[in-house]
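Human: If only I could read C-alpha cells as easily as an amino acid sequence. Underneath my words sits a plain record pairing an amino acid chain with its C-alpha cells. Take your time, and here it is.
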Amino acid sequence: MSDTTDAFRSELRAWLKDNLGPELRSENLAQLADGERVALLRRWQARLAQDRWVAITWPRAYGGRDASIAEQIAYVEEMSQAGAPPAINGLGIGIVGPPIIAFGTEEQKREFAPKILSAEHIWCCGFSEPGAGSDLASLRTQALLEGDEFVVTGQKVWTSLAQHADWCMVFCRTDPESKRRQGVSVLLVDMKSPGITVRPLRQINGQAEFNEVFFEDVRVPRRNLLGELHNGWQIVTSALQNERGIMYVVEMQIALKRQRDEIVRLIRNDERARRDPLTRQKLANLYLGVETFRSTCQRILVKLLRAGMPGPEASIIKLHWTKLTQTMPTVSMSAIGPFAQIYDPPQPGERSDPAQWVQASYLGAPAASIASGTTEIMKGIIAMQVLGLPR
C-alpha cells in the first residue's frame, strides 16, 4: 500500500470520527419511518459532499477527488468498517453521473453534477420495461420530437428509488421505425413533470424497493437529451458498466462477509443449532463459499487495477453472489427452526430482532436471480465472452 493511500485512509478515518453520529448507525436508521430515513440520509450525503467524500472518483472540476483505484478500494473498506451508511443517491453517483460527465454538455454537467453530489436531486434509472428487462434492446417507450420538446409515452418497471426520485435517466426509442439498438436515446427527465405516475411494487417481505413508472405524453425539453439523438446505446452500456465497477466488487465481498458473520453469531447463540452436525456442515460450506468469493473478487480487482475497467469476468462475481445470497438465509432459517416460518416485519420505531432480519433476507433472496442482470444472462456472458463458447 502506497504512502498516498495510507494518508487517504487516515484523512477519511479522522473525518468519519468527527462527523459520523450514532443516529446514522444501521440499527437506528432501521427504526425510522421511510420519509424520516430518506431525509436524514439526504443530510448525511450533503455533509459528505461538502468535504468531497462522495463520488470520489469524479473529476475535481465536478466535485470529486480524481481518486485512484487503490483509494476507491480504501474508501469502501473504511466506510464499511466505520459503519457509515452509503450515500442515498447511489444511482445518481454511480450510474447517472458518470455518463453525464462523459457525454453531457458543459451546461448539463454544471446543472446536474453538484445537485447529484449534495443529494438535492435524487435520481432513478428508467431502463427495464415489461418485456424488456434483461433484453433491454426490446424497449418500447417512445420519445417523439415535437419542436423543442420530446413527448414521452411508455412504462418502466423495477425502478429503484422512483418513489423518492427528483429526476430519472430514461432510456427510450426516439426513432419509431428503428429496431433493437438503433434509434434509441437517453433523456434526463424531471419526475415532477405532468404525466408521470409512480406505483410502488410491494414485495413479499413487506418492503417496496421497486416501482412501476408510467409516462403519459410527458414533455421533456430537447436540452435534456444526453449525448446524440438516436445514439443512446453506448451511453446506457457505459452506465451499466459503472454498475459493476470497482465499488461494486469491493462492496459485494464486504457485504457477504458481514452477512456470514451475522449468521455465525446467530448460530453460536443457539445451543441446539450449534450442536447440530448438519447445521455445522452447512455453515462450513458457507464459510468456504464466502472465502472463495472473496478470492475471486481479489482477482477481478487485480485486473481492474491493471486495465481500469471491469471485464466480462465481473459476471462470474454476480453469479456467485446470487448463489451465496440465496444460500445464507436458507441456512439461517434452518438454524432458527419452526419460528422462522412466522414473519412479522418490524414497524417504524421498533427494533428488529435477528429472526426478523433472517426472515426478511429469506423472503427477498429470490430477487437476487434478477437484480443487476438475470442468472441466465450472466451465464450467457460467461459462456461466450469468458469461455469463448459459440452463441
Notes: The CA atoms of residues 48 and 121 lie 15 Å apart.
